[in-house]
Design a protein that fits this description.
Elements (H helix, E strand, L loop, with lengths): L8 H6 L12 H20 L13 H14 L8 H12 L12 H5 L1 H12 L12 H19 L5 H19 L8 H23 L4 H13 L4 H22 L11 H4 L8 H12 L11 H4 L3 H7 L13 H4 L1 H20 L42 H6 L8 H7 L26 H16 L7 H4 L10 H11 L3 H6 L13 H16 L9 H14 L8 H9 L16 H11 L14 H15 L2 H5 L3 E2 L19 E2 L4 H14 L3 H30 L36 H8 L6 H16 L7 H15 L7 H19 L8 H20 L7 H16 L23 H17 L18 H7 L10 E6 L3 E6 L13 E8 L2 E8 L5 H6 L37 H4 L4 H4 L2 H34 L20 H8 L5 H4 L11 E4 L6 H10 L5 E9 L6 H6 L9 H8 L3 E4 L46 E6 L4 E5 L27 H6 L9 H5 L11 H5 L12 E9 L10 H4 L28 E6 L5 E6 L16 E2 L11 H13 L2 H21 L2 H21 L4 H21 L1
Parallel strand pairs: 8-11, 8-12, 12-13
Antiparallel strand pairs: 1-2, 3-4, 3-7, 4-5, 5-6, 9-10, 10-11, 13-14, 14-15
Helix pairs in contact: 2-3, 2-4, 4-7, 6-8, 7-9, 8-9, 8-10, 9-11, 11-13, 11-17, 17-20, 17-24, 20-24, 20-25, 24-26, 27-28, 28-31, 30-31, 30-32, 31-33, 31-34, 33-34, 33-35, 34-36, 35-36, 35-37, 36-38, 37-38, 38-55, 46-55, 54-56, 55-56
Length: about 1500
């Protein structure tokens, strides 16, 4: 840069301006003259009364003569006050350029520049080292430096010549003190920081006021190169260049570029008046003022300066050993400081700048002790305590460091590391480079030469590589050779220098080398999408990685850790040829991840961060074997890094052969990981690899079945897995097992992880074992493990039932353990873990319903359900059995109880019954009152024909007693029942059949037999005399008591006899009368025919009218006297209540109830973001045509679900106004019209939710996929005639979307097909159905997820999320008491966003942004992961359930519950004011059912249970108040 300019070095040496005429006299003469002349001047300045007094010198001649004396006085010894007086006089006189005073001679005031120039030259004598300097010289030097500093800052009349003299003065005094080898405790060591600080500050001031000419810059560069063995030089240079960089970035890239934050003290070094052009010129010159920083790694270069050479020879001429100079032993630390400074500059240009750390590395990066002033210290040098530095053999052997730092340094040492990535902590995400950052080539053009040379410091490369000039490819061959000689400290170079002892300089430059390697990794990881990097840079970078990742011969742990830490996104940047380093990264991961302690890395970096970075790299490598198959990875330099010719370490291997090693690393990492975040990442990676393997094998089986060749997919056998030690392509490393802990894992798992089934089994065993041991105490890991098990349940791989049973049993054991924990440990988080376990159990049961065919599995599951509902098991041991009626319900919490009840509902209703007859869009019946009225052929049936009952305060029965007209025999009692309960709506048609239907069909009409004719002459007739007393009474003899009562004839007289006779006659007449009547009756009876039609009993005719509702309730035990009674000591209503359906608003409330979904519903919004787009309208317009998007985007879109018509779809459609439609068809039928496909290329906008959406559902959830587009009025474009125009190649996918049969679930498809566009349900029709004065009832939790397909990865930061929130309304946000409305008022912060970026390799990079729950991770989503095209749908649909569950764990809070209670109370008061007591009962029951429906499908919403309980209490209190 200054090759054509001359240096001023000789000018400085030949300048005699610092000599005096007194130097020509004897020493005693000059001393006496100086003492005599200077003393009165100095005393006059120091006397308090002398303030304001005039100077003793009046003329120019007097001043010049006195200056000759003062110049000589500055060279005298420090034993007297003469030197001090000389310094006082000169520091006072130079202030004439700042503020003239009376103490300054008048000639100096008149021509200050001329005199100050001479004074500066004279002051050089003060800085000449004395034999015994002590603290006096240091204090005087500081006085001069402060005066010079003030002069430069405050002077406004300084001429250019004065500025130049001032710069030369500072260069000269710095060179005088700092060029020679540092003496322990000497003046140079103590003044170095102040000297360099003043020099750089004054130089910057000169740049702003009088820019130095190139000779001055060249001289400064040459001299600074002689001072680099002082730590303060590099430290001050780093401060200045960082301050200049901060100003440079501000005007170069604008205010939107991330600011480079530096301390205010450093920012103050830059003069405010310095303009942008001056900043740029100064920045570039200061960047190179230190020469090549890599020279600091070579003591031979540092010690080749003239001052060092002078010191190498002592007085006797004997050469001294170089290692006796402690300053050279500080070079590793200084080298690291220089690399750290360059690293900060690179980070600033990338936009990921970190505050510059002034602290020394906190961990022992060197094996030698460092001096105290290796770190920046604000204590004045003359006040610092000197501490001797000793180096002993023990220190070198153990590799420890005893570096003394200040308290500030010690505080920073605890939190920073020389290998840590910028702004990266254990809890913060890795920052993205700024979108406006410069290109990689531009940064490497600035810093690449230094960084590459520093990265290869002391590397033992192959001889051919050392001689290869193309490895640098940055400068000329001569400059390359010059750098190589200075930086690559090979053994030959060290041996060729007789003054250099290699044994004293081991590989302690590894910290600086590690910093350079990490910086280069960050540079290449910042590559923009589509950016081209020069092949020379790429090739050298790959050589750096290969060298740094070497573990066979020698492991440089700091370098290895730095590369791993700064390379997580390396395989996501589409670097050309990056695959050549895949085997080396795998070998490095095999060293790091299976090692639990990482004891060899603890001295350099936080092991948790190192493991996290390794896991991120592993996530990037896992898809490669399946994606590239048997493609071989190229090797840059085959065999040049190993002396073993038979080693296969550097030989080409197939990518598929690396799969087993990657899987084994993954399993080993899971066994040794202890950090929760890292464990979740590993679990996500495990689920992805299992699912991807299963999909790949399924595709392989399909191709084999279809006869297709599948050579790429038939490589899953162990012979192709790279574990064979006999094959030439083996990838098994040659390192001993003691150094490679992954080898043991390789042998253990080789038989289990070779196929998808084996990997699935191994994953189940490993996760279940740890779930019930190490992980059951940690909530985040437990939830992630349960999500992993749920994902493994959905993998379509045939495994033995015992393995599936192991997973179910493990989840059950987990629930038992958590429920049995002591009461003080029960918390919301604990109950969330139990609820998650029940949800996992539901997934396993729905995916594998045959598991309940096994008796022991069914018993275990039902016991767990019982435990969740009641709080205890009925059978705790072999002997003790506690029946249900004897137990007191005591569940762990209401949330746990609801989760257990939902599991029981899943077992009873969903297992083996999904999809239901209604289709997957509705697990419930699509029949309601309106449908039954339409399908019945009786005009007399209307909605008031139904009778409504409430059972157990939780189920509503709607009964239609009239026959529908389609029964075979209307005379049979029949009832049609609509059951609305917590599990949904179901319709049943029932008939009372006393006989089986088969017997009833063969039965004849019953005809009664006639009564037989009576026969009276049959049998014997006996005459019986009736007696009042038995005959035995007459046989009893009388006693005197009997005779005491006389007989009648003994007492009868005439009067009595007359009466007696009259009585006798009356009796005789009565007997005769009765006998005659009997005879007459008998005669009449004989004359009548038999049987008597009047008295004959005939069978009744069969009943034709029934009270079928009463029969149903009675037969099922619901109707009884006990059921109609109110429970004692309870405010709950009776078990059976009849509802009055004629009251106003009744059917509106039923409509509210039917609006509630039976499953959690989620919505996915898909966006396509082209390169460079920033506005929402640009993004929305991309999907209007398939020509605007990539073909893979349409393929991905179609894989998310199937197309459904919004107007006919009975499930979730993405908006509440069009969802769960049951009766959307019109009563008027139109001629059938076939749906006509439009010739217009509508692209993916057809799924914008107006007419069509994509839909996916399983037994436990339903998802609507919506592609928002610019909202326009609905047109009939889709019904226009077919055009013959040819569409683009991307449009070929669209007819398949539109032609596929509509998966409608309507009961009457012939009616639905007749609908016109105006008769179909419009997006606003549902809102019109809602009665005025009422609000839509709460819809429960709804999860929204944005999936953004980005063509350019850097555009992620420009995604207008806040603008698109309004385009993605689902209607749930506006519902009253909606659980979604309980969240934060900033919806854009609550919406998770999944960015998908296609790579050139065919893989896809995933970026997760936004709220992902309490634990910042959603299994299997991991930020920064790479997935294959097959797995895109797996990272989109399954994580929705996880996001929903984790969001509820994080967001439900007490204040939100209180707000929900207040809103619900207001709603209830409004209802009570509008309707009567019965309607209040109906509303209360309906609202409770709605709440229970929500709880049964959103298990972790404990706040809604509180709401439901309070609502019931409020209603009962209101009812009692009315009564």
């Amino acid at each position: 840069m200054y090759s054509e300019w001359r240096s001023l070095h000789l000018v400085i040496q030949n300048d005699q301006g610092h000599t005096s005429v007194l130097h020509s006299y004897p020493e005693n003469v000059g001393r006496e003259v100086a003492n005599s002349v200077v003393r009165p001047l100095g005393q006059a300045l120091n006397m308090p009364s002398a303030t304001g007094s005039e100077s003793l010198l009046k003329t120019d001649k007097e001043v010049k003569w006195t200056m000759e004396v003062v110049c000589y006085g500055l060279t005298l010894p420090l034993d007297g006050d003469t030197v001090k007086y000389c310094v006082d006089v000169y520091t006072d006189w130079i202030m004439a350029l700042v503020l003239p005073k009376e103490s300054i001679p008048l000639p100096v005031i008149k021509e200050p520049n001329l005199y100050v120039q001479s004074i500066l030259k004279h002051l050089q004598n003060l800085f000449v080292p004395r034999a015994d300097p002590g603290s006096i010289q240091m204090r005087l030097c500081l006085q001069v430096l402060k005066a010079v500093q003030k002069l430069a800052r405050e002077s406004s009349i300084m001429a250019r010549e004065t500025w130049e003299i001032l710069l030369l003065f500072l260069l000269q005094i710095n060179d005088t003190l700092l060029a020679a080898p540092t003496v322990q405790g000497g003046i140079a060591e103590n003044l170095a920081e102040k000297l360099i600080g003043v020099l750089f500050e004054v130089w910057l001031l000169a740049c702003a006021r009088c820019f130095p000419t190139p000779p001055y810059w060249k001289t400064a560069k040459e001299m600074v190169a002689n001072w680099r063995h002082h730590p303060a030089v590099v430290e001050q240079w780093s401060k200045v260049i960082c301050a200049l960089t901060s100003r440079l970035l501000r005007f170069t890239y604008g205010p939107s570029f991330p600011p480079f934050k530096i301390p205010d003290e450093d920012a103050g070094l830059i003069p405010p008046e310095m303009d942008n052009e001056c900043i740029a010129q100064t920045w570039f010159r200061f960047l190179h003022i230190l020469s090549n920083p890599v020279d600091l790694s070579n003591p031979a270069i540092i010690s080749s300066t003239p001052k060092f050479q002078e010191q190498f020879l002592n007085v006797s001429g004997i050469t001294q050993e170089l290692n006796q100079y402690p300053c050279l032993k500080h070079l590793p630390q200084i080298f690291f400081r220089a690399m750290r400074g360059i690293s900060c500059l690179v980070d600033a240009f990338l936009g990921i700048s970190r505050p510059r750390s002034d602290s020394a590395p906190p961990t022992p990066v060197n094996r030698l002790s460092m001096p105290q002033n290796a770190a920046v210290n604000t204590t004045p040098p003359h006040n610092r305590r000197h501490r001797a530095v000793t180096v002993n053999k023990a220190t070198v052997k153990t590799g420890t460091v005893s570096t003394t730092h200040t308290s500030k340094v010690q505080q920073q040492a605890s939190s920073t590391s020389p290998l840590s990535s910028p702004n990266q902590t254990s809890s913060e995400p890795r920052p993205l480079p700024a979108p406006r950052r410069p290109k990689v080539n531009s940064i490497l053009n600035l810093f690449g030469s230094w960084l590459f040379d520093a990265a290869f410091v002391h590397c033992k490369l192959h001889n051919g590589i050392n001689r290869d000039g193309s490895m640098t490819a940055i400068a000329t061959q001569a400059s390359v050779e010059f750098r190589r000689k200075g930086s690559q400290m090979s053994t030959d170079t060290i041996a060729s220098n007789p003054m250099f002892d290699a044994s004293e300089f081991p590989d302690n430059y590894e910290s600086g080398r590690a910093e350079a390697c990490g910086t280069l990794c960050r540079i290449f990881c910042s590559k923009k999408t589509g950016e081209e990097i020069l092949p020379a840079y790429l090739s050298r970078f790959y050589m750096l990685l290969i060298q740094g990742l070497q573990i066979a011969d020698f492991i440089c742990h700091p370098v290895l850790a730095s590369i791993i830490l700064n390379s997580p996104p390396l395989f996501c940047c589409d670097l050309k040829g990056i695959d050549v380093v895949v085997p080396y990264f795998i070998s490095a991961l095999e060293t790091i991840l299976p090692d639990r302690e990482l004891s060899k890395f603890k001295n350099y970096i936080n092991p948790i961060e190192l493991r996290r970075a390794s896991i991120n790299i592993l996530l990037s490598l896992l898809p490669l074997p399946h994606h590239f198959g048997i493609v071989k990875s190229e090797v840059v330099l085959e065999g040049k890094f190993s002396n073993d010719e038979s080693s296969s370490y550097d030989r080409p291997v197939t990518f598929l052969s690396l799969k087993l090693r990657l899987v084994n690393i993954l399993i080993g990492a899971l066994q040794t990981e202890t950090d929760p975040n890292n464990t979740q990442m590993i679990l996500g990676a495990m689920l992805n690899i299992v699912q991807d393997s299963a999909l790949l094998e399924a595709i392989s089986c399909q191709l084999e079945t279809n006869g297709g060749e599948n050579s790429l997919l038939k490589s899953h056998s162990r012979t192709n897995s790279g574990i064979s030690t006999t094959s030439g392509g083996s990838t098994e490393p040659t390192t001993p097992d003691s150094e490679r802990p992954a080898q043991a894992l390789l042998r253990d798992y080789a038989l289990n992880t070779d196929t998808a089934a084996g990997l699935l089994i191994r994953s189940i065993h490993l996760v279940t074992q740890r779930l019930n041991s190490q992980w059951r105490q940690d909530m985040s890991i437990s939830l992630a493990a349960l999500e992993l098990l749920s994902g493994l349940a959905k993998v379509k791989v045939v495994v033995d039932s015992s393995d599936r049973k192991r997973a179910i049993s493990s989840v059950c054991s987990y629930i038992v353990y958590q429920c049995s924990r002591p009461a003080p440990l029960h918390s919301r988080d604990l109950h969330s873990m139990i609820v998650a376990a029940f949800q996992c159990l539901c997934v396993w049961l729905t995916e594998h319903p045959d598991m309940l065919d096994e008796k022991d599995c069914l018993k275990e599951v039902l016991e767990i359900v019982e435990l969740g509902i009641s709080g205890s098991k009925s059978k705790n041991s072999e002997q003790e059995v506690k029946y249900k009626g004897d137990k007191e319900p005591n569940p762990a919490s209401m949330r746990v109880k609801d989760a257990a009840e939902a599991t029981l509902t899943c077992i009873m209703q969903l297992l083996g019954a999904f999809p239901s007859p209604s289709g997957p869009a509705s697990p419930c019946s699509l029949v309601n009152e309106t449908t039954l009225i339409k399908c019945s052929g009786l005009p007399t049936i209307n909605k008031h024909s139904f009778r409504y009952f409430v059972l157990d305060n939780s189920v509503i029965l709607a009964m239609l007693e009239q026959p529908l007209g389609n029964e075979r025999n209307d005379s049979i009692p029949s009832v049609t029942t609509l059951v609305r309960g917590t599990s949904g709506r179901f319709a049943w048609a029932q008939q009372l059949c006393l006989l089986p239907r088969g017997a009833k069909a063969n039965q004849k009409m019953f005809i009664p037999e006639p009564r037989p004719t009576p026969k009276n002459n049959v049998g014997l007739k006996y005459t019986v005399k009736h007696r009042p007393f038995p005959e035995e009474v007459d046989k009893i003899p009388f006693v005197k008591a009997d005779l005491s009562i006389p007989d009648l004839h003994e007492i009868v007289n005439e009067e009595l006899e007359e009466r007696h006779e009259k009585l006798r006659n009356g009796m005789a007449q009565q007997i005769f009368y009765e006998t005659s009547i009997d005879q007459k009756s008998e005669e009449e009876w004989r004359k009548k025919s038999f049987p008597d039609p009047v008295t004959e009993c005939k069978p009744l005719p069969p009943a034709q009218e029934f009270q079928t509702a009463r029969l149903f309730l009675s037969h099922f035990g619901f109707l009884s006297l006990e059921a109609l009674k109110e429970p004692a000591n309870s405010r709950l209503p009776p078990h059976l209540i009849a509802l009055e359906s004629t009251l106003p608003g009744f059917f509106d409330d039923l409509g509210y109830l039917d609006l509630l979904p039976c499953r959690p519903f989620d919505t996915v919004f898909i966006f396509y973001m082209k390169a460079g787009q920033k506005t929402s309208q640009e993004i929305l317009k991309n999907v209007e045509s398939s020509r605007n998007v990539q073909p893979h985007f349409l393929e991905f879109l179609l894989s998310l679900g199937w197309s459904v018509d919004v107007g006919k779809h009975p499930g979730w459609t993405g908006h509440i106004s069009t969802s769960w439609s049951i009766n959307s068809c019109s009563n008027e039928e139109e001629p059938e019209q076939d749906e006509v496909i439009s010739s217009e290329d509508v692209g993916a906008s057809i799924f914008n939710g107006q007419k069509k959406v994509l839909y996916y559902a399983d037994a436990l959830t339903e998802i609507a996929v919506v592609v928002p587009s610019p909202m326009e009025p609905l047109t009939d474009s889709l019904e226009s005639s077919v055009s013959d125009q040819e569409n683009d190649s991307n449009m070929d996918l669209m007819p398949g979307i539109l032609k596929q049969p509509s998966l409608t679930l309507e009961l009457f498809p012939n009616h639905a097909d007749h609908l016109s566009s105006s008769q179909r349900l419009s997006p606003t029709s549902r809102s019109k159905k809602v009665p005025q004065g009422r609000t839509i009832p709460p819809m429960g939790p709804e999860t929204k997820v944005y999936v953004v397909w980005v063509e350019r990865y850097d555009d992620i930061e420009n995604f207008p999320l806040s603008d698109l929130v309004s385009e993605t309304s689902t209607g749930v946000e506006t519902t009253a008491n909606s659980s979604t409305s309980l969240r934060s008022a900033s919806p854009e912060k609550e919406v998770p966003v999944i960015f998908i970026h296609p790579l050139n390799t065919g893989l896809f990079r995933i970026k997760v942004q936004g709220a992902t729950g309490k634990f910042n991770m959603v299994i299997p989503l991991v930020d920064g992961m790479i997935v294959s095209r097959r797995a895109l749908v797996l990272i989109t649909i399954p994580p929705l359930g996880t996001i929903r569950r984790t969001n509820w764990v994080a967001h439900v809070r007490t204040d939100q519950i209180v707000k929900s209670l207040n809103r619900c109370t207001e709603w209830i008061k409004e209802l009570v004011q509008q309707i009567c007591w019965f309607m209040g009962s109906v509303t209360g029951v309906l609202h409770q059912i709605k709440q229970e429906a929500q709880r049964s499908h959103t298990q972790n919403r404990q706040d809604q249970q509180v709401v439901a309980g309070v609502l019931i209490t409020v209603l009962v209190l209101m009812v009692l108040g009315k009564g």
